[in-house]
Design a protein that fits this description.
It is a single chain. This protein is α/β, with parallel strands linked by helices. The chain has seven helices and nine strands, in the order βαβαββββααβαβαβα. Strand 7, helix 5 and strand 8 form a beta-alpha-beta unit.
Length: 224
């Protein structure tokens, strides 16, 4: 199980960041003070993880790339998901939720196919289909704007592990304590500023200003 490092002063607090850029700056400083690793590579989970990771990349003077992963949405609710998929077509499913919702195999396969099409499109839009960097023997940091259920991050971790990095670190401004402890089984370290064990957990509750980022906003952040 990996180390779980968090800021005790922000435990169970709400609205502790102005927006994602502010969260990124604060998380970057937290990492700079604690990380001993050199020569790291930073990977953002789009869309929300991009402005956070951009600040970390600048502060740590580390290369930035994207990990294209996506939650598999429920057929009747695009805001909720029952798992996630990465660009290797690996799937991580929330079996308990699938069972409780009585999702049929046909429903699951249809949603997986939709997710795959979205992944292909996002890789083209955000990364111009460029080859994934060589991370063998290197330390990688996965950054998102928060950690809720953890399925998207698990799909991201699965993608990276196949490429044999030396160490995998997760860095998020806010997280569910339960999910972070679950994810710590799959990585070497987790860094989180604002940990909450209050149910229900919502990533947005850590931010004073919150909106879904458009593709244009993501591209603008990456280009600046």
């Amino acid at each position: 199980m990996g180390n779980f490092i968090f800021d005790k002063n922000l435990y169970n607090k709400f609205f502790v960041f102005n927006e994602r850029k502010d969260a990124g700056k604060k998380l970057a400083q937290f990492l700079k003070d604690k990380l001993e690793e050199k020569g790291i590579l930073v990977f953002a989970v789009p869309s929300g993880g991009v402005p956070v990771a951009k600040e970390i990349s600048k502060e740590l003077k580390a290369p930035l790339d994207l990990l294209i992963v996506r939650k598999i949405q429920l057929p009747w609710n695009t805001e909720a998901g029952f798992g996630a998929m990465n660009l290797d077509k690996d799937v991580v499913l929330n079996e308990e939720l699938i069972k409780s919702l009585n999702l049929s195999q046909e429903d699951i396969e249809k949603q997986k196919e939709k997710t795959w099409k979205t992944l292909i499109e996002r890789n083209k839009i955000f990364r111009n289909n460029k080859p994934f960097p060589d991370i063998k023997g290197k330390t990688v940091v996965i950054v998102d704007d928060g950690l809720a259920s953890g399925y998207t991050l698990r799909a991201a971790i699965k993608f990276l592990k196949k490429r044999e990095p030396k160490k995998i670190i997760v860095a998020v401004p806010t997280c569910s304590k339960h999910s972070a402890e679950e994810i710590s089984q799959f990585v070497d370290e987790i860094y989180c500023l604002n940990v909450r064990d209050i149910y229900p957990f919502a990533v947005a509750d850590a931010y004073k200003e919150w909106h879904d980022l458009s593709a244009d906003e993501v591209i603008e952040i990456l280009n600046n």
